[in-house]
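Let us practice reading a record.
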Amino acid sequence: MADAPHGVTDPELRERLNRIQQQLSTGLERVDPHHKLAGRPATYRVIAGRTFEIVFRDVTGITEAEVLGLKRVIGEDCYCSVEPQTAETLTVRVVVPLKAQ
């Protein structure tokens, strides 16, 4: 798992982003027993300093229960969208608002 996205200078925000990534690294296996998300290419970026976007690519399929498990692992209010990437794969995008906690 990579460090928090480049360009994040606020130490509290950097710690928060690192914590989310760590929670995914350690908790995804528990809620993803079929490895639909675990091990898939993932990108992390901060958009306009207001949202943290996590994108999983090359996902073969995902259920509502798995999406809910992913959101529980992240541990913060977040939004998830699932969209076709190719005829066989999906892109799962999670957006975490970076409002003050």
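A brief commentary: The longest strand covers residues 51-59.
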